[in-house]
Design brief:
Elements (H helix, E strand, L loop, with lengths): L29 E9 L9 E13 L13 E15 L4 H19 L11 H26 L7 E2 L1 E7 L2 E7 L3 E6 L2 E4 L6 H7 L21 E2 L8 E6 L5 E5 L1 H4 L4 H9 L4 H14 L6 E9 L2 H4 L1
Antiparallel strand pairs: 1-12, 2-3, 3-4, 3-5, 4-9, 5-6, 6-10, 7-8, 7-11, 11-12
Amino acid sequence: MKMQDDNAAGLPVESGREPRRPESESSLVEVDLAGLTHQGRVRPNNEDHFFIARFDRSMRTLGTNLPEGEVPPRSSETAYGMLVADGVGGAAAGEVASRTAIAELVGLALETPDWIMRFDEPLAAEVLKRMERRFQKIHDILVERTESNPALRGMGTTLTLACSLGDDLIAAHVGDSRAYLFHEGRLERLTRDQTLAQSLADAGAIRQEEVASHATRHVLTGAIATRGAFVQVELRHVRLADGDQVLLCTDGLTEMVQEDSIARALAARGSSSDACRRLIELALEAGGKDNVTVALGRYRIPASVSA
């Protein structure tokens, strides 16, 4: 590639200007990602789906006559996303709902012309608003599917998403799948189950410790479903630290495995793949009464990113 040297023509060069510095700290973050799903020991099919992805925006300078340091030779921003969805509905409808929800969400993200690759406020708030609109769009798409195929009527799905950029994490959630943050040996829920039992606890009708065994713990009050006109999306924005882990899972794990056992599995040495396999094994050993799906990210965040 031939470049004309405009300086040879006597064009002025601005001096004394502070060189531009690329803000690409997010590309320095290392994430060990893995996901795994299992049909379980009872269900005839698997209505769970998961998706894990890396998103990049990058530039590499191929040639210029600008002074050194005026533009970066290369710059990049890197984000990571995880999704889990647990379908509900008769026959194969639940499987269709969860698969469709993830595929459509990915498609909507790819069609967005202006990717936001900064999670500073108010940009993080805008990303969360977009997620909320996309979840509603998925609802509309599921309704359209049932209009062309009545056998799918009544289908729906949970949908839980976590997306990180540098040390920022956003989460969007509908249903009773969960997102957890494992920080310094403690397991913290980032989402709240949208179930009748949890609603009763929130209203003070039952104690919080009764929710896990209550008869209505599987009755969803929130889902991306073909019934109802509006999806109530729970949104979170949190800051990650070096060594943190983010776990997404369907209720096939949390119904079978206590949170202290989940925490021990995450604290064990090994890769994210090892931890995912162990979590699935724990659910199966406890009876495997439902499909079980996990997605896990383990973060290594340099001090320069979190400063």
